[in-house]
Amino acid sequence: MKKIIFAFFALVGFASLSAQTVTLNVRLKPIQTLVVNNAQKVVNLTYATKDDYANGVSNLKADHLNIYSTGGFQVKVKSANAALQNGSKSIQANTIQINASAGSDPVTGADYAQNTQLSENETTLVTSSVGGVDKKINIEYKGAGANAYLDNYIAGQTPTVYTTQLTYTIIAQ
């Protein structure tokens, strides 16, 4: 009788044991952040000599952009306007070039655009198939030479300043 009761409980016990499954999902959403170096929020291209007007000027901003991306990305830039304005005078944005390059902590294998003409349309500066954390990008701003801005000085303004706002964006790729 003990054997029958033991067998009964053994069968009931085994019958009540069954495998249960759980679905585990790791859900990764894209995250891209782009931060302009706070100490470099204003960029000046200053023409102060005859050679500056003849040869153009440049201003390299080391580690200008800081990138965080969970995968491949593109960094783009655009000007708020097609021309930088000062009263009735203007300087065409496309006379200014932007060069991107690897910063102090570069993005592995990224492609950096050179001699990109500033435009009111977004232009790609950096393309990467991989992401990264706190990656740095240098940006060089280059103003035109060949005396392109010779007739843009306005008497009584020292200096004459032409301004536009640039917008940098980062998108997942």
Could you describe the 3D structure shown?
- 18% of the residues are buried.
- It contains two helices and eleven strands, in the order αβαββββββββββ.
- A hairpin with a 2-residue loop joins strand 4 and strand 5 (89-92).
- The protein has helices at residues 2-16, 50-55, and strands at 32-36, 58-69, 73-79, 83-86, 89-92, 97-102, 111-112, 116-117, 123-128, 132-142, 166-172.
- With 173 residues, the chain is mostly beta strands.
- The strands form three sheets. It has a five-stranded antiparallel sheet, with no helix packed on it.
- The longest helix is centred in the N-terminal third of the chain and has 15 residues, at 2-16.
Q: Helical amount among residues, as a percent range?
A: 10-25%
Q: Strand order within the widest sheet?
A: 1-2-10-6-8
Largest sheet: 5 strands, antiparallel
Tell me the overall shape: elongated
Q: Which structural class matches the secondary elements?
A: mainly beta
Whole-number mean pLDDT: 93
The residue ranges in which pLDDT falls below 50 over 5 or more consecutive positions are none
Oligomer: single chain
What separation lies between the terminal Cα atoms?
73 Å
Order of helices and strands: HEHEEEEEEEEEE
Let me know the number of strands: 11
Q: Give the C-alpha Rg.
A: 30 Å
Fraction in beta strands: 35-45%
Helix count, per DSSP? 2
Short description:
With 173 residues, this protein is mostly beta strands. 12% of the residues lie in helices and 38% in strands. The radius of gyration is 30 Å and the shape is elongated.
